[in-house]
From TrEMBL:
PROSITE patterns assigned to the protein according to its UniProt record, in alphabetical order: HTH_LYSR (PS50931)
GO CC annotation, single: cytosol
Keyword Metal-binding on entry: no
Protein's name according to its UniProt entry: Transcriptional regulator, LysR family
Protein source organism: Allomuricauda ruestringensis (strain DSM 13258 / CIP 107369 / LMG 19739 / B1) (Muricauda ruestringensis)
Listed Pfam families: HTH_1, LysR_substrate
InterPro entries: HTH-type_LysR_regulators, LysR_HTH_N, LysR_subst-bd, WH-like_DNA-bd_sf, WH_DNA-bd_sf
Similarity comment text for this entry: Belongs to the LysR transcriptional regulatory family.
Residue stretches making up the HTH lysR-type domain: 1-58
PANTHER family per UniProt: HTH-TYPE TRANSCRIPTIONAL REGULATOR YBHD, NITROGEN ASSIMILATION TRANSCRIPTIONAL ACTIVATOR-RELATED
Length: 298
């Protein structure tokens, strides 16, 4: 039996007759009556008794009505799930970055994204911060934001933007008068970093570890504000992205290029190759790229 006939039977019973069923089904009286006759012909017997202008279910009609309740509920549920899958109307995006300072873009991205996809929840998985790609592959994340182009055939890396990493020192530090410093110069300084392990820190991964260079001392301090205060007191140096530094720049600190050509860091969105992502993931990446690019501009 066709789904439309099941909807017809259900509407007549639950609306108490043909007149109100017409409104629910958006059918004229003649069209509804014709469909009812078709349904009865298809079954081969009456579905309703006609008594005093009332329609009362026959035993066959009761059987079909009970089946219609279950079948239509499943059909409607499946239809809604398919719409969500196709249109990306609801879901969850679990995301993490490799650095806590990168989360400052979240409010602006969420505001824009929620305006387009109010039923999609963004979950920030903070515990995956220092190993986002590893957590992506293990299934703990949906997408990861990273500058570490790890060698794996399972992951696609989509370019977001590139930023320049700058050394930050006190105005009284010996580096303050220099236009740039080299990797070897870090051997003589106390270097402040936000987190461990060292291979997740951009300056170590790209410049220091490949050249076998170790700073005189490593200070691990997760808070950017506290790190800048140490720098101002000439108790260490730090390497940070130009956009992350902007709120803290004043006359008490200086920024210096790392290497003569500058130290550029490429940021990526990482996602699994063998996974089909709903449309809203593409929009999240689009909004993220737009927001970070704006933030990175001088």
């Amino acid at each position: 039996m066709e789904i439309r006939y099941l909807r017809l039977i259900k509407a007549i019973v639950e609306e108490g007759g043909i007149t109100r069923a017409m409104d629910v089904l958006h059918l004229s009286q003649s069209a509804l009556s014709y469909q009812l006759k078709e349904a009865e012909l298809q079954v081969g017997t009456q579905l309703f008794y006609r008594r005093n202008k009332k329609l009362i279910l026959t035993p066959v009609g009761k059987k079909l009505y009970n089946s219609a309740i279950k079948i239509l509920a499943e059909v409607d549920r499946t239809d809604e799930e398919i719409k969500r899958m196709v249109n990306g109307e609801s879901g969850v995006i679990r995301v993490s970055t490799e650095c806590y300072t990168s989360y400052h873009w979240l409010p602006a991205v969420l505001k824009k994204f929620n305006g387009e996809f109010p039923n999609v929840k963004i979950e920030i998985v903070f515990e995956a911060t220092h190993h986002p790609v590893e957590n992506l592959v293990s299934g703990n994340l949906d997408i990861a934001i990273t500058s570490n182009l790890e060698q794996t055939d399972q992951v696609d890396f989509i370019k977001l933007f590139s930023d320049e990493m700058l050394a930050v020192v006190s105005k009284s530090h010996p580096w303050a008068k220099r236009s740039f410093i080299e990797a070897e110069d870090f051997q003589d300084v106390d270097l402040i970093i936000h987190s461990l392990p060292l291979e997740t820190v951009s300056i170590f991964r790209s410049e220091l570890i490949p050249k076998g260079i170790n700073p005189k001392k490593i200070i691990v301090l997760p808070l950017t504000e506290a790190s800048i205060e140490l720098v101002k007191a000439n108790l260490g140096v730090i390497v940070m992205a130009n956009w992350a530094l902007r709120p803290y720049l004043d006359k008490s600190i200086k920024t210096i290029k790392v290497t003569a050509n500058g130290f550029q860091r490429q940021q990526y969105v990482a996602r699994m190759k063998d996974r089909k992502y709903p449309m809203y993931f593409d929009y999240f990446i689009k909004f993220l790229r737009e927001e970070i690019k704006l933030d990175a501009e001088p």
